[in-house]
């Protein structure tokens, strides 16, 4: 089996992980492209692990951590103002949490990706959990037509300390709710039961105001093709609570980062 055939099943999900780290499709894909270029130069890196998936994510992680602004070391990073360093960091605890919660790696496999032992990985995940607890609460709108899923999301969001403005089950309900109560975060199913589209509803809202959006779908591979603009944050059904928690954290992290940048630019 060729190298491209070996890694093909994992690329859509590596791209999802890259977007979760960087906050947008373009930057995420740039890091994935760099990893693929490194793999082309040295295909033997896939043989250093029992799993080509682990080897691929480990190669990506080495490239991600080699860029000063993404890690915690390096002289350039030390010369940056503390606030700027913090606002640009996606530290190792966040990587560990996303590998386990979003990508579904076991602790042992995630530790291999990050090249640490399981004890160190657990400390990283715990540290990320403390970071999550410190997240600023926001008002959340849910677009979901399946009652039980909507209830699960509502309970989970409230457990994370956020306020649920309401649940919309159709395109029309979503637009009406958004006009009445401006959300700080949207969790949206893509295909709704009445034939309307959560994606269309969100796009209509985004023409009026900016808000971080997390899409939820049973068919994530349909939106991870690279053939058109893709959602920055995507959760697959059925989802795990930790996955939702991790992605909500990332979405709000980048939203606050953008606001800080805007304040510095206009200050």
Number of helices: 13
- CATH level 3 topology of the largest domain: Butyryl-CoA Dehydrogenase, subunit A, domain 3
Task: Provide the CATH architecture of the largest domain.
Answer: Up-down Bundle
Q: List how many beta strands DSSP finds.
A: 5
Uncertain parts: 71-90
Distance between the termini: 56 Å
The secondary-structure element order is HHHHHHHHHEHEHEHEEH
Account of the 3D structure:
The chain has 267 residues and is of the alpha/beta class. It folds into 2 domains: 3-133, Butyryl-CoA Dehydrogenase, subunit A, domain 3 (Up-down Bundle); 139-266, Response regulator (Rossmann fold, 3-Layer(aba) Sandwich), CATH 3.40.50.2300. It contains 13 helices and 5 strands. Helix 3 crosses helix 4 (52-66) and helix 8 (107-114) crosses helix 9 (118-133).
What is the gist of this entry?
The protein has helices at residues 3-7, 11-22, 25-41, 52-66, 75-79, 82-88, 92-101, 107-114, 118-133, 147-159, 171-180, 198-206, 241-266, and strands at 139-143, 163-168, 185-189, 213-217, 234-236. With 267 residues, the chain is α/β, with parallel strands linked by helices.
Describe how the helices and strands are arranged.
Elements: H1 3-7, H2 11-22, H3 25-41, H4 52-66, H5 75-79, H6 82-88, H7 92-101, H8 107-114, H9 118-133, E1 139-143, H10 147-159, E2 163-168, H11 171-180, E3 185-189, H12 198-206, E4 213-217, E5 234-236, H13 241-266
Parallel strand pairs: 1-2, 1-3, 3-4, 4-5
